[in-house]
Write a structure and sequence with these properties.
disordered C terminus; seven-stranded parallel beta sheet; alpha/beta; 18% strand; six-stranded parallel beta sheet; DNA damage; Probable DNA 3'-5' helicase RecG; hydrolase
């Protein structure tokens, strides 16, 4: 290892040697001094304090700080030689057995009772005991024969707080710590990108101090200050990107689409068979004002399943049609697009039949464009759209293909935004001469910090009331492994509902044989559990067994489009009693007569998914019932998650739970690109106040200096922390 001065761009091989640099690059994707310096410890252990060994999961790759309690040597049964068993504990009663094969007397002398060390390996279980087989380890304090570079290692962990890094089997945490020390010894930190006024106002450490203290903290207080500064950098980078995006959007020209008295919208409101909720009225006024402005609306409409978002969106579309424009609604599946089409035709009645006998005076036309349209029907629909006769156009991503030309696209409504790629949404917006107004809808409630961080460039409206006439949904967990009789009762309960004239869904995580699609859960997890239940396998078993004699349909993403539509239409028309499906029914499917949903292998689904699925029942006057069938053991995290879903229908509470259980990187969009993101410390759940403060500073700074021209170091830092693809993801939003 050399003593050459290091900057963030210095290749690691110049600092830590070719072999170590190769291991860091190959196993952890760390190539430069900057990569390593920004590879922050996952946690810090403290001498005399214990790691909770009892909380470790079998199969987990771990590093634990523990004390040697006893050693034992015994002959191996299957081959010659001895086996060394070293029992280590954490002081709380949790113990691990470390096993070493072969005659290693030096190891027995080194691993004396009372010695503390870091032990790294994969947790296994044998006869009820937790084990680490042949773990890597480093002892703290006195040196020993088996400690590689003992003096260096001891120096590494001389402080009270011991950093434990995200590591790999081939590159344990102490190797990373040693490399970090070598880099820090010669590291020249970059110019501090944060403006001095922000640092002073927010009492933030300088960047050099923060980077040193996060790796080699001199105290808990210093570590807290370092983490706070580095979290601030991450939050500030994201917020600056979003605020700049919002600032640019406000300057774009757009055609104002003001409301018109006595037009289609007024006629629609007059024929609505029910009164809008106060929430729908408030949100409607917000959207109407946005549409009347001369810059594009960019609004997120979130609301509980069944809160009436579609009616709000339709009223916005009618305002645009009244103003001479067209509106496009983009749905994630053909099933949902077709359902929106039928629902909007029903709601509009004669208002959607321009050119037909009995049409209303101001009527428009509604067109559905999907990939499965026949050639003649497609030509006719395209002409209606291109010539402007169709005021409302519905479809899937087929709307994005060349050949679909709008006369005057004024509004894009994106249903279930998270189902679409950035490029798809952007392609639709590009079909207008000027940027159209955009309304993004989601039925997945979004915690406030996520809305601020991921959708921070959108104005947000929330519908929390359910329309009158909606029925409550009761949810229960069915523990199939512990109490098989409960599953039998679930099928009887389904038959009882069908006998009353109602319908039911049975949802499975997988389609069946063939390649895994986006709507499916993984076939087998790391713990070797059986593959998830599949629609094509479960449907015939139900037809021959507990649901014998009922009319059963099958729906999944690999069916041809016309077959999917036929099955969905048959279910909606009451020609089927039970629909066995994948999550293709998760969003928007509306069959008010369906009162029961049984979700098989429910622990294979996420919290938000289960909440979405559950929203398919209880949409009429009869009460809904959702049964979550699982083999997850009582007390397991999977079972606790299901119990939480069953205990509340409050989507916002469940969204917070979902956020708690997901990796922060997924929420922040770090996985949107194949490249590594530097957003590592920020927690949307724990750092809400810091994110709010960063947003306030970002707004102030962008107002003074929209392109950060006077802050080049900050602009470069934002580019590094929010990489190009991530920025593009936020930009196109």
């Amino acid at each position: 290892m050399t003593g050459e001065a290091a900057t963030v761009d210095t290749p690691l091989k110049k600092l830590v040697g070719e072999r170590t640099a190769k291991a860091l690059a190959g196993h952890l994707d760390l190539h430069t001094a900057g990569d390593l310096i920004y590879h922050f410890p996952r946690r810090y252990d403290e001498r005399g304090e214990h790691t909770d060994i009892r909380s470790l999961d079998v199969g987990e790759q771990v590093t634990v700080l523990a004390q040697v309690q006893r050693t034992a040597v015994r002959p191996m049964r299957q081959r010659r030689g001895n086996l060394l068993e070293v029992t280590v504990g954490d002081g709380s009663g949790g113990v691990l057995t470390c096993t070493f094969f072969g005659n290693q007397a030096w190891r027995e002398r080194e691993l004396r009772p009372g010695r503390w060390g870091l032990f790294a390996g994969k947790v296994t279980e044998f006869r009820g005991k937790r084990q680490l087989n042949g773990p890597e380890y480093v002892l703290l304090g006195e040196g020993g024969e088996g400690e590689a570079a003992a003096n260096e290692e001891v120096e590494e962990f001389a402080g009270a707080l011991i950093p434990v890094y995200p590591a790999a089997a081939a590159v344990p945490t102490w190797v990373i710590a040693r490399c970090v020390r070598v880099v820090l010894d010669t590291f020249t930190p970059p110019d501090d990108p944060l403006p001095a006024t922000v640092r002073a106002t927010r009492n933030l450490a300088d960047i050099g101090t923060a980077l040193r203290e996060i790796h080699r903290p001199t105290s808990k207080e210093a570590l807290y200050r370092a983490r706070r500064r580095l979290k601030w950098d991450e939050a500030f980078a994201v917020q600056l990107t979003l605020v700049q995006r919002k600032h640019r959007a406000a300057a774009w020209p757009a055609r104002a689409r003001p409301a018109k008295a006595g037009g289609l919208l007024d006629a629609f409101d007059a024929r609505l068979p029910y009164e809008l909720t106060s929430g729908q009225q408030v949100v409607g006024r917000e959207i109407a004002a946005d549409l009347a402005a001369a810059h594009p609306m960019h609004r997120l409409l979130q609301g509980e399943v069944g809160s009436g978002k579609t009616v709000v969106a339709l009223r916005a579309m009618l305002q645009v049609v009244d103003a001479g424009g067209q509106a496009a609604l983009l749905a994630p599946t053909e099933v949902l697009a077709a359902q929106h089409y039928r629902g909007i035709l029903d709601l509009l009645g004669p208002l959607a039949r321009a050119g037909e006998l009995g049409a209303a005076e101001d009527a428009t036309r509604v067109e559905l464009i999907t990939g499965s349209l026949g050639a003649a029907a497609r030509r006719r629909a395209l002409a209606e759209v291109a010539e402007g006769r169709a005021g409302i156009v519905l479809g899937t991503h087929a709307l994005l293909y060349e050949g679909v030309d709008f006369h005057d696209l004024g509004l894009v409504v994106v249903d279930e935004q998270h189902r679409f790629g950035v490029e798809q949404r952007d392609a639709l917006r590009a079909k207008a001469d000027q940027p159209p107004h955009v309304l993004v809808m989601t039925a997945t409630p979004i915690p406030r910090t996520v809305a601020m961080t991921v959708y921070g460039d959108l104005e947000t409206s929330t519908l929390s009331q359910l329309p009158q006439g909606r029925s409550p949904i009761a949810s229960h967990v069915v523990p199939a492994a512990e109490k098989p009789a409960f599953l039998d009762r679930a099928w009887r309960r389904l038959r009882e509902e069908v006998a009353k004239g109602h319908q039911a869904y049975v949802v499975c995580p997988r389609i069946g044989e063939g390649p895994v699609s986006d709507e499916e859960a993984p076939r087998e997890d790391d713990n070797g559990r059986r593959p998830p239940l599949a629609v094509t396998e479960v449907a015939p078993l139900l037809a021959e067994g507990p649901l014998h004699g009922l009319r059963i349909g099958v729906l999944h993403g690999r069916l041809p489009a016309d077959e999917k539509d036929a099955v969905m239409r048959a279910f909606a028309d009451g020609e089927l009693d039970v629909l066995v499906a994948t999550t293709v029914v998760e969003v928007g499917v509306n069959v008010p007569n369906a009162t029961v949903m049984i979700v098989l292998d429910a622990d294979r689904f996420g919290v938000s998914q289960l909440h979405q699925l559950r929203g398919r029942v209880g949409r009429g006057s009869a009460a809904g019932l959702c049964l979550l069938v699982s083999e997850a053991a009582e007390g397991s995290s999977a079972r606790e998650r299901l119990d939480a879903v069953a205990s509340t229908t409050d989507g916002f509470k469940l969204a917070e739970l979902d956020l708690e259980q997901r990796r922060e990187g997924d929420v922040l969009g770090a996985t949107q690109s194949g490249r590594r993101s530097h957003l590592r410390l920020l927690s949307l759940r724990r750092d809400a106040e810091l994110i709010r403060d960063a947003r306030a500073e970002a707004i102030e700074l962008v107002e003074e200096d929209p392109d950060l021209a006077r802050h080049p170091a900050l602009a470069a830092s934002v580019a590094a922390l929010v990489d190009e693809e991530r920025a593009e993801y936020l930009e196109k939003g």
